[in-house]
Every structure is written in structure tokens, then in C-alpha cells.
Write a structure and sequence with these properties.
Formyltetrahydrofolate synthetase, domain 3, single chain, Domain 2, N(10)-formyltetrahydrofolate synthetase, 3 domains, alpha/beta, 21 helices, 25 strands, 4-stranded mixed β-sheet, Rossmann fold, about 20% strand
């Protein structure tokens, strides 16, 4: 089969004005970025039209290094719905340069289910990530300058909470010292870098409802702690307007198209293992304003992305998904069934069946939220008919709808079964009103414990000294009512990335708490998870090149 980038190049792209008009967005309302990408203004969002739309969430079993194909399925479902004559769009996250040049090589779908132009989407796109990076680091520079310029006035901070960010995987930047050199070079201080998707600015961009709300949230961010233990917020610097200016275009959703020339929104990009893992609220709302069906995804497995989608994004916005699709593959199930990664493409029904425990726990968790569920089996070439029958029979035994997705090789026609199954489920058995894992009124420890025990399956939760110190600060600030965003490994229900399957009898250790007062959530750091990833021994960058004027290595 052709590579993703070969398929993408062969697709005939329509002018972005035609893509907009297909879903009744007037061509004169969009701001084109070239011929095939456009920004869409926020004033087109219509609350009444949103109520008439059907929101569908796509999530997955616990991911493995073999891949699951969640983004591909999200695009596939939108393609399949359009094949059935329904107006459907997908609302996805933007790829990060870190994984693109690190382990993935791209994150715009795959095969005949992609969003296009994939090279631009995977690289600089409309500059949203650069805007977030610039805004975040501008704050760091302004804060350092404020400390430097006012040090002779006796001003100082007891603790600086604001780091820097960069959209690359670079372990060497996790811990740094700034201000070295001559005294005019700044005040020496310990600091560090997170990857841009972990930036609080990224979270704010994805949760803000409009430009005014963006400004309010930016002003409310806590940069450090004063000597009297009061918070030092960005509004104390007096630069909220300047930072909002840097983001004034980034907040507008990006409109692109699929391999079958149907509309798609790609906007925002927090990771679900270190942030809340959802595309922007405004992109979702814009898509729902102009489409009967909207397919969106939440990062990594349902224990991370889906939980945060419900408990953070939906809690704050009032969104109510009509259905959740959970993606599974034979290779992923086999890995969770104890089959070595080198053997997961070989037939192994025993390992496959053992892997059902992982799928089943995710299904039970989604049902706790009141979700109607469709299990989507993302077919790979190595899958056997016997394996397909086993998974289908297992889902039928659970009373859960099941569909096979062949869109990777067949495009929208290969997703018709999935699309019809989703339509039938929404018509006959839509999701119940959302039931959250915790209440706003729960204290922070209780929220973390409810997620860890009821979603992850942990037996207990412990809190390190740093976490306890931050908990005390959070309590004094009176912000325990914020939702919690747990940062942990994506490869396991536990905080141990090597503990596959459906583990139990484990402890989740919270080593730190990060206050995101602008995003209005608390990030709890579990286990050894890093908010600045590193590169592997052979990063994808070694295979990315320009050959005869064409980009190769993105997939």
C-alpha cells in the first residue's frame, strides 16, 4: 500500500472557500491561509444550532507502541457519515513538532482517512503552536525583567512557578539555570522547560470561549508567590493585553479538508498524558454550529483523554456527547494480553482474549459516565477472520455495539458500517446526561482519589512532600473547586508504563501539583511522567527529508 504522504499528495484538494460553503460558512467570512487552510471567526458560533448537533467522542483502549489509530478512526467516522449522506465534520487536535520529529512522524490520520494538507498541518500550519510558545516565553521574559528592574526596590518572589516552553522533545532542558554571567544578564535562578502542549497558555486557548475570556484567564495566571505568601498573577505585570495580542489569531479555529474533500477543524493541541488532551472548545462549537454530526477525539486511552474530556471540558462548557466510540486493535489487545511486541502481528487468540480485560475496564469506565458506547475495531492487514469474530462476539456478550473500520485502506466506504452503527445508537440509545467522577465541591485529594480508584483501578493514592506543600498553598488560595488534570503515563492504567493489561492492587503516587489558575484546573503529576519528553535512540527526524522538492518521512 502507498504511504500516507503518497496518498495525501494524490488527493485533489478543493479551494478552502468551497469547503467552507459545503457546511454553509460564507466564503467572505473566512480568512484563508493560502488555498487550502482558513481561520474561521468566533462570531459565527450559534448556541441554538449547537443544541441541534450530535457530538461524538472517539477514545481508545490503553495505547501501545504498536499504535491504535484513534485519529484515523475519528476522520474515518466523519467520512463514513458523509458517505451515508449526513453532514459530518471532525474536530481534532493539532500535531506537535515534538512527536512528529520524535516517535510519530505525523498525526493527521493515516491511509485514506487523513486531514489535508498533511505536510502543513504536521509542520507549522497556521502558527498556533508558535503563538502559544511565543506568548508563554514572552511572559517568562517579562517576569524576569520585572524582577531584575525592581530588585533595588526590595521586590522579590518567594517562589517562581512559571517555566518556559518549546515545541520539541529535549530532555536537556527539563532543568536549567537562567541569569548566569554578568550581573546585567539577569538574576540567577533555577528553571526548566516543558513542551508547548503542556503550557498553561495551550490549556487556556483550548478552554476559552472568546477573546474576552482568553484575556480574563491570561490575567488570572499565577506566575509566582510573593514574600507574604500571596499569589503574583500576570495581571500584576500589567501585560495581559500584550499576551492576548499574540494569541488573537491563534484562538480562531482552523478549517481544512479530508482526503474526500469534506470539512475538518484542526485546532489546539494539549497532550492527554501531561495536559487535558482535547482540541479547542471554540472549534468544537463552530463545528457543531454548522454540522449535524461532529466527531472529536480525546488523547490516548479513555482513562486519560476521555476522563478529562468529560470532567474538564464538558463540565465547564456544558457539552453533552451523544455517544462515545472506543477504538481497539488486535495488536493492542494482544500486547495487553501479554504477547511480546515482536509477535503481535502473528495469530494468537489466547493473548487476544486475555487483552479483553483492558477493553472491558475502559467500557465499564465510560458507562460510569452514562455514555452509550460503540467499539470500533480498527482493522490491520495481519488480522484474521477468527480474531475479528472473537472480538465481535465478546462485545455482543457485553451488550455493546461493535463495528469494523476499514477506512485506512478504503476511505469513507470502509467506515460505512461504523457510521451506520453510530447513527443507530444515537437514534435508539443515546448517552444519558453526563455523570462526573467527582463533584466540584470535593476537596482536591478526594478528586484525585476518586479518579485513581474508580477509573484507574488503584488501591490507594499517596502524596509526596512537594505535592503536600502545594496542596496547602492551593487550599489557602481557595481554588480546590477547580477540576483536576492528572498527568501520568499513557501506557498503563497505573503510573508504571510497563504494567500493561488491566492491573490492580497498585498505588498512584502524586509527586507534585501544578496550579493552572488561568485554565482553572489543577495538574497532578503522577509517578515519573515528564512534561518535557525526550527523544529516542532513533528519532523520526532521521527519516524526514526533502527529496526532489518533496517532503518525505511524515506519516
Amino acid at each position: 500500500m502507498k504511504t500516507d504522504i503518497e496518498i495525501a499528495r494524490e488527493c485533489e484538494l478543493k479551494p478552502i472557500e468551497q469547503i467552507a460553503e459545503y457546511i454553509d460558512i460564507p466564503a467572505d467570512k473566512i480568512a484563508p491561509y493560502g488555498h487550502h487552510i482558513a481561520k474561521v471567526p468566533l462570531n459565527l458560533i450559534d448556541a441554538e444550532k449547537i443544541k441541534q448537533s450530535n457530538l461524538i467522542l472517539v477514545t481508545a483502549i490503553t495505547p501501545t507502541k504498536a499504535g491504535i489509530g484513534k485519529t484515523t478512526v475519528s476522520i474515518s467516522l466523519a467520512l463514513g457519515l458523509n458517505q451515508l449522506g449526513e453532514k459530518a465534520v471532525c474536530a481534532l487536535r493539532e500535531p506537535s513538532l515534538g512527536p512528529c520529529f520524535g516517535v510519530k512522524g505525523g498525526a493527521a490520520g493515516g491511509g485514506y482517512a487523513q486531514v489535508l494538507p498533511m505536510e502543513k498541518i504536521n509542520l507549522h500550519f497556521t502558527g498556533d503552536f508558535h503563538a502559544v510558545t511565543s506568548a508563554h516565553n514572552m511572559i517568562a521574559a517579562l517576569l524576569d525583567n520585572y524582577l531584575y528592574q525592581h530588585r533595588d526596590d526590595g521586590f522579590a518572589l518567594k517562589e517562581i512557578l512559571w517555566k518556559r516552553v518549546l515545541d520539541v522533545n529535549d530532555r536537556s532542558l527539563r532543568h536549567v539555570v537562567t541569569g548566569l554571567g554578568h550581573k546585567t544578564d539577569g538574576i540567577p535562578a533555577e528553571s526548566g522547560f516543558d513542551i508547548t502542549p503542556a503550557s498553561e497558555i495551550m490549556a487556556i486557548l483550548c478552554l476559552a470561549t472568546d477573546l474576552d475570556d482568553l484575556r480574563r484567564r491570561i490575567d488570572n495566571m499565577i506566575l509566582g508567590i510573593n514574600l507574604d505568601d500571596s499569589p503574583f498573577r500576570l495581571k500584576d505585570l500589567g501585560v495581559g493585553g500584550a499576551i492576548t495580542v499574540l494569541l488573537k489569531d491563534a484562538i480562531k479555529p482552523n478549517l481544512v479538508q479530508t482526503t474526500e474533500q469534506t470539512p475538518a477543524f484542526v485546532h489546539g493541541g494539549p497532550f492527554a498524558n501531561i495536559a487535558h488532551g482535547c482540541s479547542t472548545l471554540v472549534a468544537t462549537q463552530t463545528a457543531m454550529t454548522f454540522s449535524k454530526y461532529v466527531v472529536t477525539e480525546a488523547g490516548f486511552g479513555a482513562d486519560l483523554g476521555a476522563e478529562k474530556f468529560f470532567d474538564i471540558k464538558c463540565r465547564k462548557s456544558g457539552l453533552q456527547p451523544k455517544l462515545t466510540v472506543i477504538v481497539a486493535t488486535t495488536q493492542g489487545l494482544k500486547m495487553h494480553g501479554g504477547v511480546p511486541v515482536e509477535q503481535i502481528t502473528e495469530p494468537n487468540t489466547e493473548g487476544l482474549v486475555r487483552g479483553f480485560d483492558n477493553l472491558d475496564r475502559h467500557i465499564r469506565n465510560l458507562q460510569k459516565f452514562g455514555q452509550s458506547i460503540v467499539v470500533c475495531f480498527n482493522r490491520y492487514a495481519s488480522d484474521t477472520e477468527e480474531e475479528l469474530r472473537l472480538v465481535r462476539k465478546h462485545c455482543e456478550k457485553l451488550g455493546v455495539r461493535f463495528a469494523i473500520n476499514d477506512a485506512f485502506t478504503q476511505g469513507g466506504k470502509g467506515a460505512v458500517e461504523l457510521a451506520q452503527t453510530v447513527i443507530d445508537a444515537i437514534k435508539n440509545n443515546p448517552s444519558q446526561p453526563l455523570r462526573f467522577v467527582y463533584e466540584d465541591s470535593d476537596d482536591l485529594k478526594t478528586k484525585i482519589e476518586k479518579i485513581s480508584l474508580n477509573i484507574y483501578g488503584a488501591k490507594s493514592v499517596t502524596f509526596g512532600k512537594t505535592a503536600m506543600r502545594m496542596l496547602s498553598r492551593i487550599q489557602k488560595l481557595g481554588i480546590e473547586h477547580y477540576p483536576v488534570c492528572i498527568a501520568k503515563t499513557q501506557f498503563s492504567f497505573s503510573a508504571d508504563p510497563k504494567l500493561y493489561g488491566s492491573p490492580s492492587d497498585f498505588t498512584i503516587n502524586i509527586r507534585d501539583l501544578v496550579i493552572n489558575a488561568g485554565a482553572e484546573m489543577i495538574v497532578a503529576i503522577a509517578g515519573d511522567i515528564m512534561r518535557m519528553p525526550g527523544l529516542g535512540k532513533s528519532p523520526q527526524a532521521e527519516r524526514i527529508d526533502i527529496i526532489n522538492g518533496e517532503i518525505e518521512g511524515l506519516s
